[in-house]
Write a structure and sequence with these properties.
Elements: E1 11-15, H1 20-31, E2 35-40, H2 47-54, E3 63-67, H3 73-87, E4 92-95, H4 111-138, E5 142-147, H5 150-154, H6 160-180, E6 185-192, H7 197-205, H8 207-215, H9 225-237, E7 247-251
Parallel strand pairs: 1-2, 1-4, 2-3, 4-5, 5-6, 6-7
Helix pairs in contact: 1-9, 3-4, 4-6, 7-8
């Protein structure tokens, strides 16, 4: 994987930056020259990152881990403001973290599940954005990145709280893009299919189901968190993404297209005995 210093001099905040997609974004941003402040709830979650970052020349001095709860407004505001204070500016906020409640039907899902999921997903994105925009205005612009999910697209059963939260993030993307565009701040949303920690945990417990689901993807695999998913985020956060805003991107190897299909052999006449005859065009 080649790097080109596309984020040199930039300062980024990444929530949920110690595992899976968040970890991939932190590492990719550091390799591209950014200073990165990232969070997770426990310092224990940062052990692997510490080892990986230590292997990157000059990255340790540009990386800062903060123990913070993304469902806590004050801690999210402090995360953003302290990043700007430490490194002298703020250019990018990636709202990757999300709390996930046990799957339950709408009839049985308690209000507390909806509250927690919204707080750690939608409200997290709202709080960090509100805190970040004044800092971004000072430097002439910035990038806000939110996350959605295929579960939202497909109406995943027993995950209505999660689906609602991701739908709210998509709506926030469009509204924020409208409001902050005049400040040269772009706002976009990613719907990923990455080999994240959560995906691997599920796949380990449901091997046959996981293999069958991936076979339906046009690309026949999950995305690499650092190369594929973080690569798309990098593109939106670099100068190449400066005119892209208000969009929801499926970075998923075509997973969005895996709705059940009517499978036909090539040449099947599905209107047999009622088909209109083909007519050759003449010059």
């Amino acid at each position: 994987m080649q790097t080109h210093g596309r984020l040199s001099g930039k300062v980024a905040v990444v929530t949920g930056g110690t595992k899976g997609i968040g970890q991939g974004i932190v590492l990719r941003f550091l390799k591209e020259g950014a200073a990165v402040v990232y969070c997770s709830r426990s310092p224990e979650n940062n052990r692997e990152n510490e080892a990986l970052i230590a292997q990157l020349s000059g990255a340790a001095e540009r990386a800062q881990f903060v123990a913070a709860d993304v469902g806590n407004r004050q801690q999210m505001e402090d995360l953003v403001n302290n990043a700007a204070e430490r490194f002298g500016r703020l250019d990018i906020v990636v709202n990757n973290a999300q709390g996930i409640a046990p799957v339950r039907s709408i009839e049985n899902k308690p209000d507390a599940d909806y509250r927690m999921t919204l707080m750690t997903g939608f409200y997290q994105s709202l709080w960090t954005s509100r805190a970040a925009v004044p800092h971004m205005r000072k430097v002439g612009g910035g990038r806000l990145i939110y996350f959605s999910s295929h579960w939202n697209i497909w109406g995943q059963p027993y995950a209505s709280d999660y689906n609602i939260t991701k739908s709210a993030n998509e709506a926030l993307t469009r509204s924020a893009a409208r409001e902050f565009g005049k400040d040269n701040i772009t706002v976009n949303c990613i719907t990923p299919a990455g080999d994240s920690w959560a995906y691997k945990s599920w796949a380990d417990q449901n091997r046959e189901m996981a293999e069958a689901s991936v076979r339906q993807f046009p690309m026949r695999r999950m995305g690499d968190c650092e190369i594929d998913i973080a690569g798309a985020v990098l593109g939106l956060c670099s100068d190449n993404g400066r005119f892209i805003t208000g969009q929801v991107f499926c970075v998923d190897g075509g997973a969005w297209a895996t709705a059940p299909l009517q499978m036909h052999e090539e040449g099947t006449d599905i209107h047999k005995e009622h088909s209109q005859a083909a007519v050759e065009l003449t010059a």
